[in-house]
Write a structure and sequence with these properties.
The structure is a homodimer of 485-residue chains. The first copy, chain A, has 485 residues and is α+β, with helices and mostly antiparallel strands. Chain A folds into three domains: 270 residues, 2-Layer Sandwich (BirA Bifunctional Protein, domain 2), CATH 3.30.930; 97 residues, Rossmann fold (3-Layer(aba) Sandwich); 80 residues, Translation Initiation Factor IF3 (2-Layer Sandwich). Chain A is built from 14 helices and 23 strands. Chain A has an eleven-stranded mixed sheet, with helices on both faces. A five-stranded mixed sheet of chain A has the order 16-15-17-18-19, with helices on both faces. A three-stranded antiparallel sheet of chain A has the order 4-6-5. The first copy, chain A, starts with 11 loop residues before the first helix and ends with a strand. The relative contact order of chain A is 0.11.
Chain lengths: 485, 485
């Protein structure tokens, strides 16, 4: 199995594809730009989705469902929005055997269709806040795609909220950013930087876009989620006014926020190794695999013993599977379950039974330990919790090691390997640098190094003094630059 | 509130729409033929979906996700399939600003795209059975729509399984039919007839379609779910062969099965009354609403007491809400929560506090009881379980009362009110009649009475002797006829 995977150092992109295909997480599809999410990939997405869903409900949001198709004229009501999305649209021109009077697009995001209904639902401050989330498929035509990370169709959630005041809407934007940060860090074990996007990178139609940015193992950045403060832009575009507590009429304040199946790609890229997938226990379809080792004369007793251990783990709420397939060897099974990313392996042979010990192997570190069989569930729980903790810590150390303060343009060119452009390894990672705030500087650096301004990190904007690392003008912000997915 | 609902007897269709809109379950959308599922409607769908999902997983199925778009040429590979679905397709002709070489349709169902992948995934009997389910949106262009019951876009699940033998595939078809029956009867409290569809009513591309059929309160039938035995039709269309245990090559055997958001409409139509929605406790977003009744001087103590009772119910796993909104009267709240279908109401006033009793009101029967406050949770649990049971029994009695054996054509014309066509009340309900098996007889009866052959009930096909009720030829089946949604 392992030899099917191109080593990370040889070709990072191919390594990623090899894992996705061999671990049967996803597959290519006959539809250009679209992917098929296979059961093992979908099971990971379900666990990510369920945790977010729980957190959204905890913070007062309700799920709803809006139409897939959007009249083209709706998109045109918000000038920046249509400009941003028009090039990516799939257009339905015929329905029920007839040419349509007005074409529809497949939703690239649902602000417009949702705000067209909010106009009917919101009359007074009593109708606010309106806190709605939708789990849905969306479609943005893409020329260059990558399984999970960038596909034309993808699955996501999109929160769309309406508020009485600007302050409340900003608070909601930041509350959901914090939910994103917390779930991605604790549940997916991916450390992220929270920050604000520059004007040129923000959502088309937003006043301000907040984001969480993660570092992959090739030191590139991946935008893992965004939360937008939309101001009154969509309320004005769809004429959504409400009677205020004071009795006057005002436009509603809005937010929207989303995470997608791209997160599955982020999990794979952050934790995996050359043997295959590495998964946080919280996301693993099976947390423990038991591999029984036997010959003909010991088969019955070893299998019975494996089932007993399995039942104990199961009773303790641990997701466990016994691989008792006779058509493959234990060695083959070890490699196969390592490929699949199962966090813990328990090996049981006749001698282990007699000595009342088990062999416990960790997927993250490869560490192998003999442990007493007496409290297998307790031992496994402890090991799983430790894996969850260590994966996060390891990723955080990696990011720290590849984040550097850079003072000026020569430094940035050197860090991002402008000379050696074209090789994935020629860049340093995240550069923390002062910035004057001009889009020209962003564009200049991107043209020279492919590095983009990922965000202006929250909590890192105090005491800005000095010069823009790119143009030398007085700096206004501290920014994080990186190549990105 | 109640006066917003047109009485059932006056106009059943309007009664249904009034409930859907006033209970805020769904709303019309600016997209022709599509609806918006509002949070209270979506919460019901989530509870239906989660129960099915649990049952699918229990029976060994895994979720996956396939593309929304399907190349038009794929549909044409199965002759009956394309003939059945072509008139209902929405067609995407442009993507990313360019005209597409081959147009895509939005999936009306996913057999073709899924079987195009099964060709890659199935080589040997070791890859079988393949048991996959997908939760997704689908689109079938509709001219005449009705909220939840018939909309162009709807949400559903579609199971797609592949098997070694015909017998196994038939067994799977019937297993899933039984899961459907059990969940719809026990969780949704809707009694159903399980049966086989006639040739003219079966799924386009199936060998045999099994269904569950329910009776609504206007005595019309509603198809609540279908399970198809597809034979080798799609395996042949997509050339999916596997190596058998004997070493030869054979085409794979298939099933598909689905239920949709239409079930939410079935729940509303089966149980509700002129006061609004009636919901089985299993589906209710809130099982109990507590309405505190107070004046200024008793407000604090009554609210504190209501919160205490609420906490007790909550601790017992009962979904409960306290309506402490000061801007509306208790009477208005009673009507509002009746409209919303909350199964139990608890009223708490200062006198009830002193006497340590509570007022418990059932939504289904209107029955009002004083009960001791000592074990509110136990009392509520008992009442909720009884409501769940009684709703099912009541619907079953209603169906029995409106199901009749009919022997001949004059009897059928009389039963279905051919003379009085055009009024919803002119028909009797379900007619159980012998049938020769010819499509001409089905068409004849439909033209005269609007009644269609709903199914040939399973377990009711023994000892067929006599004449077709329509044409008088020797009968082959016992069939159920009804007008339908």
């Amino acid at each position: 199995m392992a030899d099917k995977i191109t080593p990370k150092e040889v070709d990072y992109s191919q390594w990623y594809i090899d894992i996705v295909l061999n671990a049967k997480l996803a597959d290519y599809s006959p539809v250009k730009g679209s992917m098929v999410i296979r059961p093992r990939g979908f099971a990971i997405w379900e666990r990510i989705r369920d945790e977010f869903d729980r957190r959204f409900k905890e913070t007062g949001h309700q799920n709803a469902y809006f139409p897939l198709l959007i009249p083209m004229s709706f998109l045109e009501k918000e000038a920046e929005h249509v400009e941003g999305f028009a090039p990516e649209l799939a257009v339905v021109t015929h329905g029920g055997g007839e040419k349509l009077e007005e074409p529809y697009c497949i939703r690239p995001t649902s602000e417009t269709i949702i705000w067209s209904k909010y106009k009917d639902w919101i009359q007074s401050w009593r109708d606010l806040p309106l806190l709605i989330n939708q789990w849905a498929n969306v479609l943005r035509w893409e020329k260059r795609t990558r399984l999970f990370l960038r596909t034309s169709e993808f699955l996501w959630q999109e929160g769309h909220t309406a508020h009485e005041t600007e302050a409340e809407a900003v608070e909601e934007t930041l509350r959901m950013l914090e939910v994103y940060r917390d779930v991605v860090e604790r549940h997916l074990c991916i450390p992220v930087v929270t920050g604000i996007k520059s004007e040129s990178e923000k959502f088309a139609g937003a006043v301000q876009t907040y984001c969480i940015e993660a570092m992959m193992q090739d030191r590139k950045a991946l935008q893992a989620g965004t939360s937008h403060f939309l101001g009154q832009n969509f309320a004005k575009a769809f004429d959504v006014k409400f009677q205020t507590r004071a009795g006057s009429l005002d436009y509603v304040w809005a937010t929207s926020w989303g995470v997608s199946t791209r997160l599955v790609g982020a999990v794979i890229m952050t934790h995996s190794d050359d043997k295959g997938l590495v998964l946080p226990p919280s996301l693993a379809p099976e947390e423990v695999v038991i591999v029984p080792i036997y010959k003909n004369d010991t088969k019955a007793s070893v299998l019975a013993y494996a089932d007993k251990i399995s039942a104990e783990l199961n009773a303790a709420g641990i997701r466990v599977v016994v691989d008792s397939d006779d058509s493959s060897s234990p060695g083959w099974k070890f490699a196969e379950w390592e490929m699949r990313g199962t966090p813990l392996r328990i090996e049981i042979g006749p001698r282990d039974m007699q000595s009342e010990k088990l062999v416990l192997v960790r997927r993250d570190s490869g560490e192998k330990k003999f442990v007493p069989a007496a409290d297998t569930a307790g031992t496994a729980k402890e090991a799983l919790a430790d894996i969850q903790k260590k994966l996060y810590e390891k990723a955080k150390v990696f990011r720290l090691e590849h984040t550097q303060d850079v003072a000026d343009l020569p430094g940035l060119l050197d860090y991002f390997g402008a000379e050696g452009m074209g090789t994935a390894d020629a860049h340093g990672g995240f550069a923390r640098a002062l910035w004057c705030g001009s889009a020209a500087c962003e564009a200049d650096l991107k043209a020279r190094t492919k590095a983009t301004l990922r965000c202006m990190p929250l909590g890192d904007q105090e005491g800005i003094q000095g010069k823009c690392a790119i143009c030398g003008a007085p700096a206004k912000h501290r920014a994080l630059f990186a190549r990105n997915y």
